[in-house]
Amino acid sequence: MLDGRSIVAICEWNPISIMNRLAIFFLPLLLAALPMPAAEAHRADVCIYGATPSGIVAAVTARQEGCSVLIVEPSRWVGGILGAGIKPLQDCPVPAAVGGLTSSRIFKMGRQPDVLRQDFAAWLAEEGITVIHEHRVQRVEMDGTSISKIILELAPPDKHGVPAPVAARKDAAVIEAKVFIDASYEGDVMAASGVQYAVGREAAATYDEELAGVGPTTNWTPLDPYVIPGDPDSGLLPWVEADHGLAKGAADDYTQAYNYRYYVTSDPAKRATFERAANYDAKDFELVGRYVEYLKSTIADEEALLKRLRDIFPGWRNSGDYNYKRESLVTMSPLGLSRLYQDGDWETRAKVWRQHKDYLSGLHHFLSTDARVPEVFRKETAELGLDKTMHADTEGWPNQLYVRITRRMKGPYVLTLADVWNKTSEKDGVGLALYGVDIYPVRRFVVANEAGQIGVATEGNMFVGGSHGTGHPYPVPYRSITPRADECTNLLVPVCFSASYIAYASARMEPVFCVLGESAGVAAAQAIRTKTSVQNIDFKRLRNRIVERGQVLEWTNELAAQTKKKRSGIETGEWASQRDWNDDKPGWEWLFPFIDTNQDGKITLNEHTAFQDYKQKHPDWQKMLKDQSK
């Protein structure tokens, strides 16, 4: 008779079982030995890396100028940050300074991210332009100072748009082109081709910029920064750093904050929940709890307190979406992570991107549950979720993190604060820029005030000149979008262009990127036709063609007079009629009667300001007003 051990032994020596075990052992080895599918080969006159608005304009332009074009886009979407929260005209204080495709096409697109993504996709289809999605540059092959090809890896983002830390497949595609345009927010083709670039903040002395380098403290608040209050040996709270001790004006590797430009709603039909991250720990938000307690102890008026709490979450309401509130010590995005992203590999970037997502969802949960938060605000916050109608395929999460700045090419000409202040007169401008020096905080750290009291503050925040800057647009030279000729001769860089940290903070707006993208598209076509480098094209011919396409390259007295005569309500906060409102706010015609509270047929600045306050107090204001109109 067979006992149990004998039966087990027979089963263990069963030939089928042996074959299964051998298969499990050898199958991975066999698969690894099999030849991988050959990399897909693509050729085009011009390859554009990045389906950002700038990249799309560059591609359309090169196509219209007679070139075959191809776009490579690491994500599943097109439109960059314009497809993820920002509006086309949002950072354009003087539309008269913008021409070409940016004015005739981009400015006439929709205002919601879902509509904008559709508009960009339709435009590309109309022009017959192919986009290779979910691929990113793995390496660049050079032939002397010319890029001969770029090799791509397949790396699909996750379901929320967060980049993959590791590629799913290496050597997935090869792109050969005569000219490459790096229109990505990260400048990856530029960096991989060996072109020099800068990251972080230059010292004030580097380019003689009084605003550069380490700046003064902002938002100083008398909070105890230690895990155990009063005990420095217990360590610093999460999201608080030690001061690096560098002098004012010194260089460092910090860069301004990133964040999601996201939409929230309390409408159950539209709401997607903020799912807590698996590693959520309330202790990570102790700084928020202490800041809430500080606000409660210093603000007696309930409405004023609620307004300050909304600065933390959802943040600053900026034309429907929410943005970083720079006047708040703590707000809807973490500080100190952007410096890791700017020159990091994809594993680092994916981690930073996910930390932004986990921070926002964790902040929502903390403010919905922590006992230190006033009950009325806990309930208000708990009712909010992501508006999935804006990003239906990512459960409400914007598919693009607002990456304000990363690498900056070191080209033949470096744009500096002198250009922003209209103190230069360069003659090779290929587009105009106009904005103040707009920088969000770079870090949050422990620092004593003048009386010696320890507290927590931010640093790096400035908005010098407001949205209009000097009021006089300044040119971005062609030499700022070309590398040095001894580094690369067939690359153009209209996004991570050559500029100091301070100057880039003024010029980094999407309309400027688009304008430079169009100029890059024309330059690429001209270089190909004349069989020369991008540095050696005939600039006079380039300039003439750019102007023929409707670009604005000089700010004339005539344009200044026209702008002064007719400033839009977007700039002034006033509209003389419903028609003026309709022209400035397409799609929002229904809103005019609600803002025009005295029903005199126009909107005053006071009425518009009151409406902005109303929106801040009522995150779901659209639904409320539309319900009133029924």
Key attributes of the depicted protein:
alpha+beta, single chain, 23 strands
Give a short summary of the structure.
The protein contains 21 helices and 23 strands. It has 630 residues and is an alpha+beta fold.
Note down, in words, how this protein is organized:
The chain has 630 residues and is an alpha+beta fold. 34% of the residues lie in helices and 18% in strands. The strands form eight sheets. Strands 1, 2, 3, 4, 5, 6 and 23 form a seven-stranded mixed beta sheet that branches. Strands 8-20-19 form a three-stranded antiparallel beta sheet, with no helix packed on it. Strands 11-15-12 form a three-stranded antiparallel beta sheet, with no helix packed on it. The longest helix is centred in the middle third of the chain and has 24 residues, at 346-369. The radius of gyration is 27 Å and the shape is globular. The model is unreliable at 1-24 (pLDDT under 50).
Pick out the low-confidence regions.
1-24
User: Any idea what the radius of gyration is?
Assistant: 27 Å
Rounded mean pLDDT is: 92
Assign a percent range to the helix content.
25-40%
> Count of DSSP helices?
21
Beginning-to-end CA distance, first to last residue: 86 Å
Give the overall form.
globular
Residues in β-strands, percent: 15-25%
Largest sheet: 7 strands, mixed
**Quick one: how many beta strands?**
23
Pairing-aware structural class of the strands and helices? alpha+beta
